[in-house]
Amino acid sequence: MVRWKTRSGGLRRVKSAIAVFLIIVTGALKVEAAPLTSEDVVHKWYTLSLALIRHTPTYSPPVASRALAYLGVTAYEAVASGSPRLQSLAGQLQDLKPLPPREAGRRYDEVVVLDTALATMTRDLFANTGPSGQQAIQRLEADLHSAILSAGTDAETIMLSENYGKAIAAHLAAWSQEDGGAVVENMGFPWTYELKKGPEHWVPTNPLSRQQQAPLLPEWGRNRSFAMPAGASCELPPPHPYSEDPSSTFYKEALEVYQVSKSLTPEQKAIAFFWIDDAMASPTPAGHWVSILIQIAEHDHLTLEKQVDALARLGVAMADAFIGCWHEKFRYDLIRPISYIRRVIAPDWTPFLLTPPFPEYPSGHSTQSGAAATVLASIFGDPYPFTDNTRERDGAVPRSFNGFIDASKEASISRLYGGIHFRAGIERGFEQGKCIGAYSVALKTWR
Length: 447
Hints:
Elements: E1 3-5, H1 18-28, H2 38-55, H3 61-80, H4 110-125, H5 131-150, H6 155-176, E2 183-185, H7 249-262, H8 266-274, H9 284-299, H10 304-332, H11 337-344, H12 364-380, E3 386-388, E4 399-401, H13 404-417, H14 423-441
Parallel strand pairs: 1-2
Antiparallel strand pairs: 3-4
Helix pairs in contact: 1-2, 2-3, 2-4, 2-5, 2-9, 3-4, 3-6, 3-9, 3-10, 4-5, 4-6, 8-13, 9-10, 9-12, 10-12, 10-14, 12-13, 12-14, 13-14
């Protein structure tokens, strides 16, 4: 569970999101009368979780990636516990001890085990979501339980399976409480923060916001990682030396951002908007890639075991990517293009996208995309054509790609079009993501 602390102890609701949220849950989460399958359970709980990420105030991109990692491991362990082909991730992920075993000789209902584990973990991860979110969780849980009962499984088997699903979730929830990310204070902005001295360092980019006078989650890079050994496992070289000399590499990179922004094509604007993935307006970068995987699973009729394997690996890679990226962001604490360009090149310049409230180097989208592409290409191969409609509800036209590398490179360069990253942060972030993703690829899941 992520707990949200404020000085007043209160929780401000984002009321304008409630109507949109209810449209999502009443449409996408309807349980049909046909026999319920484990694939249905995965799809519906993930659909709800991606919606909850959009409408739970604490769910900034790093926090969302953490939740999706735990959700993926929960789905995987629930299925692996009853599969002769999958092996547990215990002993492979950092500090994950062996999960409770099943009772020998007893019959379990696999749909019930999976549904109960995901329902329990979802309630834990989103315990601080608003009333509409809580109602959606309760409604989906009730609808799925009703569908399970209609299948005619005997009460003893259902109870045994529910208890086991709860045991899996409880084990993983307890594991999650020790990772450093379980408590989010003040929306992730520290109450006090001392800016580093020097023109090369990050400064607040939104003077109208009191919270954004400090950067988002400056300690996130110290969190316990999942598959990679630690946040420093895929360190980057320093960014180009800061300089205001027009002949310097640093100035030229800033000038590129400025010049690109002044001549954006409609296609470049569409790309920047498609991959914007802002908190409270999208499922965030990690959720966007999970959405792509969910679409592929449904379109290509993936087996349950392949789905949960992919969801666990991708979720772990996304969470590790944010930890690794944040480790480097606050190690170098580099100024954002908007601050440099207004100081040195054009005082009135405004980028196409709003600049996020944390240091520039490296690009989080690039690190995420490099990690995601590495994991998904290892599972499905590349090229692997697909169409992504994640942002269609927000007015973005679905985009088609030849494969995961193609999509990941577009997601990365979108941050240059948006005016919020220098090229070095984009390119090196992508390489960092590939390094981080390799740890997830190396996990042993199939027997």
